[in-house]
Design goal:
Length: about 120
């Protein structure tokens, strides 16, 4: 099984989110392994409102195009320009330099604990 950090919360769609404020959002190593080489990311714009569980962008790989879902509701306060310039950063370091965007959280969606995510990802 891929690395699943204990300090994060997860969605069934393979996004991760931090508990801090603003919350940092990314996709999991499970997702990057399934996608293969990521070649393009479309992220929400700074100032955009995102809704937990709703599509807020997309990730394109050599295998497919996948929708990106917001794990929390709130306002986007920062996007990771490094991943829009070089999407391979997401593959190389999905929980570090490959983060996608940050949100001033108004409400958290239905999030999984690391153990729940690991069980869901394995099944």
């Amino acid at each position: 099984m891929n690395q699943i950090p204990e300090n994060l919360r997860y969605t069934v769609e393979h996004e991760w989110v931090t508990d801090d404020e603003p919350a940092t959002v990314g996709i999991t190593a499970v997702a990057t392994a399934a996608l293969g080489d990521i070649v393009f990311v479309e992220l929400p714009e700074v100032g955009a409102a995102v809704t937990a569980g709703a599509v807020c962008g997309e990730i394109e790989s050599t295998k497919s195009v996948s929708e990106l879902y917001a794990p929390v509701s709130g306002t986007v306060v920062e996007v990771n320009e490094a991943v829009t310039a070089d999407p391979a950063v997401v593959n190389a370091d999905p929980y570090g330099a490959g983060w996608l965007f940050k949100v001033a959280v108004e409400e958290r969606g239905a999030l999984l604990t690391p153990a729940e995510y690991e069980a869901q990802a394995a099944g």
